[in-house]
Design brief:
The protein is an alpha/beta fold. It has 19 helices and 22 strands. The strands form 6 sheets. A 6-stranded antiparallel beta sheet has the order 15-14-1-5-3-21. Strands 7-6-13-12-11-10 form a 6-stranded parallel beta sheet. Helix 3 runs antiparallel to helix 7 (179-203) and helix 7 runs parallel beside helix 15 (396-405).
Amino acid sequence: VSGKPTTATQTLFHSFRNNRLKMSGTSSPRTPLKRQKSDSIIIAKKQKFTLHPTNNFVNPLLNDLYQITMAYSYWSQGRHNLNSVFDLFFRTPPFKGEFCVFAGLDEVIRHVSNFKFEPDHIEYLQEALPSCNPEFFKWLATVDRSKLKVYAITEGTIVFPRLPLIRIEGPIAVAQLLETTLLTLVNYPSLVATNAVRHRMVVGESKSLFEFGLRRAQGPDGGVSASRYSYMGTFNGTSNVLAGHLFGIPIKGTHAHAYVTSFIDEQDLKVREFKAADGKTVNFWDVVKKARQDTGFSATNEGELVAFTAYSISFPSGFTALVDTYDTLKSGVRNFLTVALALHRCGYKAVGIRLDSGDLSYLSVQARKLFKQFSQDFQQPYFEKFNIVASNDINEKTLGSLKEQGHEIDTFGIGTNLVTCQAQPALGCVYKLVEIEGHPRIKLSQDVAKVTLPARKNIYRLFGAEFPLLDIMTLEDEPAPVPGEKILCLHPFDQKKRAYVTPTRVEPLLKLFWNEGEVSEGLPPLDEIRSFVWNQIKEMRPDHVRSLNPTPYKISVTNGLYNLLHNLWLKEVPIPDIQ
């Protein structure tokens, strides 16, 4: 993919689709794409061929103008090739918690691999910046990723404020041009993955969570990203068919109220026969009417029963009914049970119901009671275990409330509050220069939270007997902590907060993923990252990741980094002359 903008007649679907084709080496845009079991492509170690972003919008022009103008000024001053180091990190954890799930690294590596200004990009910039020296644009056309190094924490890792999630090393003009794109590739994915795993922590591993938010997402890009990163954040699947196609995410869905209300009576049931599980053709409507007599559920909405019958004829092995169109308990659930009994007599098993309105706790409990009674009446144990799905504007707080009330819901479909991150719509990662030509740099502020930590740094997670104790940042040339050996850990800004720590295990967090033209660390498929996320959550001390009043996780520095930070701080702050 060249990065050229799509024409007005090309849809975003074709943009995604053609991108996948070229990633897979398929030449014809009409050739069907093969469904993947997880991510669209697994990035392997030592891979030298060009990778391509999932979205064609991701190219060097997906940038803020001032990145281009700074690059021009660096070039004009002859400073564009100075070796620089930038850190990408966040200052405040999202959702009033203490942690974040790092996501988006796969797309970062794809962008870096594919980073090059195309001729049409250069032409546009010449028009947009007519006062710039034409030689600058000739230089810009030669810019690529061949002198860049990308260090990063593994995607899916539970991370904390101030930790460099990504460290970029390379010529300052090129590294500067990456800032905006890298931030947009990390901010939203990390926010959605964190939002998703927080929902998972409320319901536990026994419940299923599905993302249903495409129609409420911030455009097609937001919708596809939300599906991908909520799945990474331990959701079980999505309703988004394109996301399933691109990333191999399980797709799920039932039907809408419009489907139910489109049927009025049995005259609307044009196809009444289907093949039973034994291969014989039966008039299923006759089987349903007999089941209705046997259940005694005669005072229900007939159009709804006909709709359920029609849908189960289409999907006899996966029938889930939306039961709140007219009256959930007096009609919807009873019509579902009637059709479920008819399907059973034809050798099929219905799946369950979906609740989309009303008191979800009460309705789910009452529905389960009906299932249990139905199971006893017809001597079929699996009837009482029919799946109950709820999908009524659910968020993390709602899940907690349902848990307190008690409910019988097995599966939650979560849309608006998940994909829009209504509780906090932005993460706020930043990208700061920390070293230039070997000289540590610092950004100061009256707000201590905005003071940056200078120099190249390594990060280590120190473990105790059961859980991680803290993360410590060291200067790059300092020795790594050693299990069983005491190390002094200091708060970066409060000298009174310090402790000696003797770790039982030490885990280095930063790895070199991109090394001057090639992938140097493999990136795992989506399913593997998803499992890694949940294992990370289970590895953390529970009070650090709980939703309400979590205990702050300690981020510390070595004595060497502490001294460098404060000496540089004193050096860079002007001394006032008071008279």
